[in-house]
Amino acid sequence: MTTERYPTSRPAVVTCGLPYANGSLHLGHLLTTLSGDALSRALDTLGQQTAFVCGSDMHGTPIAVNAHENGETPEAFAQRYHEEFADTFPRFDIEWDNYGHTHDDTNVETTREFVRSWIDNDHVYEKDIKVAWDPEAGQPLPDRYVEGTCPYCGEHARGDECDEGCQRHLEPGEIEAPTSTLTGNPAEYRTRSHEFLRLSDFQAYLREWIDRLEGTENAKNQPRQWIEGDLRDLCITRDMEWGIDYPGEGEEDLVLYVWVDAPIEYVSSSKQYTERVGADTYDWADVWHDDGEIIHVIGQDIIQHHAVFWPAMLRGAGYNEPRAIMASGFVNLKGKAFSTSRNRAIWADEYLETGFSPDFLRYYFITAGNFQSDINFTWSDLQQTTNEELVGNIGNFVYRSLLFAHRNYDGTPLADEPASDEVQGRIETAVDDFTAAINDYSLTEAATAVYELSGFGNRYIQSNEPWNLIDDDPHAGAAVIRDCVQLAKAVGVLLAPFAPEGAERIWTQLGEDGSVHDAGIDAALDAPPAEFSSPDEIFTKIEDDEIEPLAAELAAMVEESDDTADSRGTDSDDDGDFGDAPEIDTTARDRIDFETFQDLEMRVGEVEVAEPVEGADDLVRLEVDIGTETRQIVAGIKQFYDADDLPGTRVVVLANLEPAELFGVKSNGMVLAAGEEADLLTTVGDAPIGSLVR
């Protein structure tokens, strides 16, 4: 790993969390893949040698269970979804350099090489552990065949993860009151020998590595609770038939845990790309064995696997370390996470059936807010972003500029002269902003640089009124249009990672050779062609009559899924775990700029329910309506307020705080209060619930 700014002298690889071959893709699955594709394209634009690789996750208990219920072998079942994924991704302009899967020969062999390295270097040991057993079925129960109670927070949990509570990874034998999902009967624990990767061997290394890790703040901060605490070793084997066989001696009946072979697919997919294009074009070993740039784009629910397990796995096998991890929030519907089990989701093929451009979804996801924050998807928000920003700003500027240039000059006037100093300077600023944003792993800021450049173009053409100048001062009029065409070309170059189809349309209409996706960032200031044909609109507006039936269908689906929700309550990723921050003396802190302040999402809320947290001296559990949803928030105000008096109280809520858990209670936000006696902040007037504090 280097610390050079992009583009660096080393090759890079961008990966995304592997989609699980257990069902069709929905829009929630696409957030990280669309973002990873945009990052990879942006790095290419900067001149960084980059490979964008991934693969389908084919192993694990859920696939084995569902395949059995479907009357298929696990391999055939997973292969069918893998092929569906491989067909769907390109329809969203997601262009992998290689897309493999975890059951192919390359990954099987690479995984075994990793594990043999750990064994040879004495990082693996055998240990007797409790394994859930179904006495009626007469067989051991791998993680997903078991459900029960989380030993940490008391919520209902799966055998491998507290999916409905604290989100902790659970080792075999930890879940309490285990129940077999095969028969529904109580399970029992029996002793069984399994293999463990000694993560404690890497704890000192991980503590140093996390300090140099780049990417999003959640990916850098969340793992510290494991790395700096009592780091437990990782059980790397499971009692089942479907998976990659453990390569050690005498354990032929065990397979490797799915979270062993899944991230190794990143390496395997890179190998396959090199095999296809040749090491002279891209050498996977330069990235993974030497000092290349490894960037992972994942969902926030798998940070622990990528920022604790994975760097230790790489270190133990003598591989390079990740340079950056970008961890996204979730895509929600009406404040609740997509749920495939409740059919509360918008499926990838449903979006494609609308006929809307993939550009619309890509741009909407990337500009919807801070990458780490959840996106509350609505069709009307997609429409508004598309019509106001892609159509009304970017598309409008490019189309009017090229149309005016074609009608009056058959192309670019004064093409052999440079653009004005003002316009060249503004493009250079946009290029610098774009480059800085990608180096900060902020796709939102990079896309904003394009939007603002186009906004400048709209103001520039409007204030200079070339339609008047062509008669009064023909040369001045031609110079203005020359500037506008240069701005349009720069917009196309910088827009390419975020709206590939629209950017290519701009490039083609300018009469440029090749593809905009092969153009480097310097092309933004290269002179445009002297001649080009009559342009067409770059983007098409989304009409109300297209959105209304989709919005109605979505509302009915959400209502139905809420009505049929099971007694266990929320989905695994419905609520984040947010907690109260310590009191801060602001005079002791450095000032922040306005952009940093804008990242804070503070909303007016109203307390609906308040009750003390059992066992805590100062905590109260609140349910607060913040307009878009009702949040559960834990606040340290018990000694200052009677809980019975709090319902109906208007408060100010910090809604995009990192998750936490207090006394086993999930908290999703922070109620703001002032002073030693926790004086709750509110508004002087009657600001509507959900209003943003600005």
Automatic annotation (TrEMBL):
Molecular function GO labels: ATP binding; metal ion binding; methionine-tRNA ligase activity; tRNA binding
Domain of life: Archaea
Motif, 'HIGH' region: chain positions: 19-29
GO cellular component: a single term: cytosol
Subunit record text: Homodimer.
Lineage: Archaea, Methanobacteriati, Methanobacteriota, Stenosarchaea group, Halobacteria
The protein's Enzyme Commission number: 6.1.1.10
Stretches assigned to the TRNA-binding domain: 596-694
Family matches, as CDD domains: Anticodon_Ia_Met (cd07957), tRNA_bind_EcMetRS_like (cd02800)
Function: Is required not only for elongation of protein synthesis but also for the initiation of all mRNA translation through initiator tRNA(fMet) aminoacylation.
Location of the region described as Disordered in the Swiss-Prot/TrEMBL record: 558-587
Regions of compositional bias (Acidic residues) in chain numbering: 572-583
HAMAP family, per database record: Met_tRNA_synth_type1 (MF_00098)
Binding site for Zn(2+): C150, C153, C162, C166
Reaction(s) catalysed by this chain's protein: tRNA(Met) + L-methionine + ATP = L-methionyl-tRNA(Met) + AMP + diphosphate
Keywords: Aminoacyl-tRNA synthetase, ATP-binding, Cytoplasm, Ligase, Metal-binding, Nucleotide-binding, Protein biosynthesis, RNA-binding, tRNA-binding, Zinc
Cofactor note: Binds 1 zinc ion per subunit.
Gene: metG
Originating organism: Halobellus salinus
Family the UniProt entry places it in: Belongs to the class-I aminoacyl-tRNA synthetase family. MetG type 1 subfamily.
Protein name: Methionine--tRNA ligase
Cofactor: Zn(2+)
UniProt-annotated binding residues for ATP: T340
Subcellular location: Cytoplasm
Pfam families: Anticodon_3 (PF19303), tRNA-synt_1g (PF09334), tRNA_bind (PF01588)
A single BP term in Gene Ontology: methionyl-tRNA aminoacylation
